[in-house]
Write a structure and sequence with these properties.
single chain; alpha/beta; 6-stranded mixed beta sheet
Amino acid sequence: MMKALFLILFPISTLTACTKQNDAMPPNNSTSRPVVPVTDTLSYLALGDSYTIGQSVPAPESFPYQLAGQLPGHKITEPTIIAKTGWTTDQLIAAIDASDINDKTYDIVTLLIGVNDQYGGGSQVNYRTKFVQVLNTAIKFAKGNKNHVFVLSIPDYGVTPFAHGQEAHIGPEIDQFNDINRDESAKAGVNYIDITPISKLAANNLSLLANDGLHPSATMYQLWVEKLKPVILNVFEKK
C-alpha cells in the first residue's frame, strides 16, 4: 500500500476472470420450478489502490477477480482494474484521466480509495472534494446508473503488524475518512459496503493478512466478496 508499484490495467488475457452459472437443483417437491440460470454478461471496472490490485497476493486472489467468479447466474468478462499501490485519491483521478477507458462504460463499478490519503497525512477536506470527483466519474463509467456503483469502506490497517501498535491513532482517523466516503456515497445514492469491521478481525487472526503483515490475504478478500455479492445480486435481480 505504501510503496510504489506498477499500474495494473486489465483486461489481460492470461488473467481472464473465472465464471460460474447457477446450476442449483430445485427442492424435491412437485410445486417447485427449476432454477433457470441467468446468462447476463457483465463488464466490470474496479478503481482503487493496493487493496484493489491485491498487493502481496496473486492477482486471481484479489477481491475483483474473486468477485468476478462468484456471481451465480452472471458472467463477468475481462475485469478492468485501474489501481496502484500507494495511490491517493488525487493519483487515482490522474490515472483515470490518463487512461484509455474514458469513452467506455461498465455494468459494475467498484471504488475503494482513501487509505493513502490518511497514511500520508492528507487533508480530510481535500479527500472529500476528490472523493466526490472520483465517485461522480465512477457513476459516469456505470452509464449514469448509481445502482451499479459499489463503494467499499477503507480497511483499518491499524490492527496489523505493520502499524506497530498504533491502532489507537490510526483507527479513529480511518473512521473519519470513512465517515466522509459513507456520507458522500449516501448523498450520491450509490451502494456502500462496510468492510472495515472485517479488516479489524486481523487483530486476532493473522491468516487474514498477506505475508507482508499489512495487506489482506485471499481469505480476507473472500470475506469482502461475501459482503459484496448479495448487494450486487440484489441490484441485478431487480432488473
